[in-house]
Automatic annotation (TrEMBL):
Residues 4-250 form the Protein kinase domain. It comes from Effrenium voratum. Gene3D superfamilies: Transferase(Phosphotransferase) domain 1 (1.10.510.10). This is Protein kinase domain-containing protein. The keyword Iron does not apply. Monomer. GO terms for molecular function: ATP binding; microtubule binding; protein kinase activity.
Length: 275
């Protein structure tokens, strides 16, 4: 850690703190996360996953260090903050802005899935953005490799408001499909200002997710309503990547005869499972 100068705290969690930092003898600013050693296994999982991801819309991993009392993980610095803070300030976003943001979120998530990784914690607080409006998926502490998903502990399923219905059943496991459910929750929250299912009571929240339809979006375009509705389908199979990439809601931007260009940078999805 002698290579970095630490500045103010820019975030914190139950077991961690995040500082703005700078690599010494340069003007390269970074985010420095200090984590208690009791979280070592989770940190090493995140480091292992992030070191194999490289995409404009995924937070860049720089390095990690271990000292006597803490683990330190160095990431690229995103001066804009996260989408949760943006929503708290602005309330909700216009549909066109949701589409722009959604393209970048989908591009990052598609890259993650194409590398055989389930994100498992997609929510506004885990999407950072730069001053140039580039969105970055961050916090892969709940993520799991596809081949290890069945052994993942229940605690590694993400925030309850964004959990797919199948994760509430005994033996339910995270999957690409559960990530896409979370994507539907996220897109609806960006548009409406709140997640589709919310309750301070965990049991009531579970009932809502399992039995109730998501609130309607009467002011949204029919294309957006259709996309979110397919992502929030309670029973599997849910909307898959090949269908998502070609959905007509994106085509309102890129043209009637084109897929979403930003989603075409990854290899064909037939090379791995989608559920």
């Amino acid at each position: 850690m002698n290579n970095y100068q630490l500045y103010e705290e820019i975030g914190h969690g139950k077991f961690s703190k995040v500082y703005k930092g700078r690599k010494k003898f340069t003007i390269q600013f970074v985010a420095v996360k200090s984590i208690e050693k009791c979280r070592r296994d989770r940190v090493m999982t995140e480091v292992g996953i992030l070191s194999n991801l490289q995409h404009e819309n995924v937070l860049e991993f720089v390095h990690w260090y271990e000292t006597r009392n803490h683990l330190w993980v160095i990431f690229e610095y995103c001066a804009g903050g996260d989408l949760l803070r943006l929503l708290k300030q602005d309330g909700r976003l216009p549909e066109e802005r949701v589409r722009v943001f959604g393209q970048q979120i989908c591009a990052g998530l598609l890259h993650v899935h194409s590398r055989g990784v389930i994100f498992a914690d997609l929510k506004p607080a885990n999407i950072l953005f730069t001053e140039e409006e580039v969105l970055k998926l961050s916090d892969f502490g709940c993520s799991v490799r596809l081949e290890e998903a069945k052994e993942a502990r229940p605690a590694r399923r993400g925030a309850p408001q964004y959990m797919a219905p199948e994760l509430f059943s005994e033996g339910g496991t995270v999957s690409f499909a559960s990530d896409l459910w979370s994507l539907g929750c996220l897109l609806q929250e960006l548009f409406s200002g709140s997640p589709p299912f919310s309750s301070p009571n965990s049991q009531q929240l579970q009932i809502l997710i399992l039995t109730e339809a998501a609130p309607s979006l009467p002011t949204a375009s029919t294309e957006f309503q259709d996309l979110v509705g397919q992502l929030l389908r309670k029973r599997l199979p849910r909307l898959t990547w090949p269908v998502l990439r070609c959905h007509r809601w994106w085509r309102q931007v890129v043209g009637a005869d084109a897929d979403v260009q930003v989603l075409q940078r990854e290899p064909p999805l037939k090379s791995f499972r989608t559920a």
